[in-house]
């Protein structure tokens, strides 16, 4: 089942740089737009958002407030943390699909790319649906804006016939809310990323609550919940996941349960920045991690999630969580290796409980610096305080360290 808006219309190019909060967007031609129209600001240059992939291109959706000559005045202003260069494209989404789909069951087959696909949607509401199978994804939402998914089952059990396998795929979309839903796929239950089509901007401002996300293959680093490097301001609350693949920037997991029938609870890749928050969660692992990796958190254990392509610094907060391992391991609970990023990072690991029972870990936390010039230069301010680490001592490098204060 495919629902699709009309193709994007190029209005012109910007004639000045744009910064966060700017409301006036001057362009090269006089646009024919009305209040509440939807435009897409899009930098077509490869890697303009992130160098981790060529098709991670900068841009965003925006709502028109008014037009004054060649100026498009926006509601709320520019959202991107980084400025846009002059000369980038402005598109009009002139007739996006808008509507509600609810109270039905959609069953796909291996010949369908997605059982339900929505492209160029705005104010779409999916409610009380059961959508299953297909060759690629149960539900695909691409270039969608201001949409709601409420009490939906997205189940992808059929073998893969068109690449990998997902419950819900969210691609290059903004302002999306998912509530009370179940997402299961062979690779990821939920994944957020995108492609290289025109107008494919970063995904941002995504909220998921009271939901369940699981995968079926059990491989390390392949989470039931998955973000790619072009995702930011994504928040998950009060949900269940069997594992997490984390990336992008400004993303958070709060008050949720992660029970891993996978070797790693939280696996990082493609970090465009270092601003992440994990707070009030319960993490449990039932399998030992691959040697050299973190058991609960693996940030650079044997891959390169942060290096010179990580453009923004920030603050990694791991606070008020419970960590329980049902296996003994020679790996640390939390492993953070910087492999070349030169930004300023703050790492706060505080008020957590590491539950030992009869099992043991090498360290509660292992933080190191690799591949930074000069080698061994500490890369972060590290605050490790008020943790019940059951005697698993931390091993930490940092420019400034506060360690063992209040730990017990």
Description:
It is a single chain. The chain has no helices and 38 strands. The protein has 408 residues and is mainly beta. The protein has two domains: 92 residues, Elongation Factor Tu (Ef-tu), domain 3 (Beta Barrel); 306 residues, Pectate Lyase C-like.
Main sheet makeup: 20 strands, parallel
| Strand-residue proportion | over 45%
Number of strands: 38
Low-confidence spans: none
Helix content: under 10%
**First-residue to last-residue Cα separation:** 56 Å
Structural class: mainly beta
Radius of gyration: 22 Å
Using the alpha-carbon principal axes, give the shape.
globular
Q: Counting H and I runs of at least 4 residues, what is the number of helices?
A: 0
The average pLDDT value, as a whole number, equals 89
Looking at CATH, which topology of the largest domain would you report? Pectate Lyase C-like
For the record, the CATH class of the largest domain is: Mainly Beta
Q: Tell me the CATH architecture of the largest domain.
A: 3 Solenoid
Number of domains: 2
């Amino acid at each position: 089942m495919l629902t699709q808006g009309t193709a994007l219309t190029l209005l012109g190019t910007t004639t000045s740089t744009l910064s966060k909060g700017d409301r006036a967007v001057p362009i090269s031609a006089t646009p024919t737009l009305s209040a509440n129209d939807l435009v897409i600001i899009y930098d077509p240059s490869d890697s303009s958002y992130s160098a981790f992939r060529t098709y991670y291109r900068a841009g965003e959706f925006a709502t028109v407030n008014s037009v004054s000559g060649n100026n498009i005045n926006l509601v709320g202003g520019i959202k991107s943390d980084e400025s846009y260069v002059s000369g980038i494209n402005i598109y009009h989404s002139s007739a996006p699909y808008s509507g509600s789909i609810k109270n039905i069951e959609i069953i796909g087959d291996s010949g369908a790319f997605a059982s339900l696909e929505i492209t160029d949607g705005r104010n779409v509401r999916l409610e009380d649906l059961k959508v299953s199978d297909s060759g690629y994804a149960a539900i695909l939402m691409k270039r969608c804006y201001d949409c709601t998914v409420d009490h939906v089952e997205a189940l992808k059990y059929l073998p893969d016939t068109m690449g990998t396998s997902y419950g819900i795929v969210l691609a290059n979309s903004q302002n999306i809310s998912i509530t009370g839903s179940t997402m299961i796929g062979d690779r990821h239950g939920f994944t957020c990323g995108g492609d290289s089509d025109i107008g494919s901007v970063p995904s941002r401002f995504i909220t998921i609550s009271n939901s369940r996300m699981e995968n079926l293959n059990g491989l390390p680093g392949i989470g039931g919940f998955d973000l790619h490097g072009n995702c930011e301001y994504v928040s998950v609350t009060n949900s269940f996941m069997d594992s997490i693949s984390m990336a992008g920037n400004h993303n958070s997991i709060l008050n949720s349960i992660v029970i891993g029938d996978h070797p790693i609870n939280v696996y990082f890749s493609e970090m465009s920045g270092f601003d992440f928050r994990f707070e009030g969660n319960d993490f449990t692992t039932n399998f030992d991690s691959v040697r050299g990796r973190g058991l609960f958190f693996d940030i650079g254990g044997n891959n390169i999630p942060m290096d010179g392509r990580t453009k923004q610094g920030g603050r990694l907060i791991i606070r008020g969580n419970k960590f329980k391992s049902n296996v003994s391991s020679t790996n640390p609970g939390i492993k953070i290796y910087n492999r070349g990023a030169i930004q300023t990072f703050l790492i706060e690991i505080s008020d957590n409980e590491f539950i030992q029972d009869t099992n043991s870990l090498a360290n509660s936390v292992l933080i190191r610096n690799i591949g930074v010039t000069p080698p061994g230069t500490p890369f972060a301010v590290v605050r490790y305080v008020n943790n019940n680490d059951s005697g698993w001592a931390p091993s930490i490098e940092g420019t400034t360290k506060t360690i063992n204060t209040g730990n017990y």
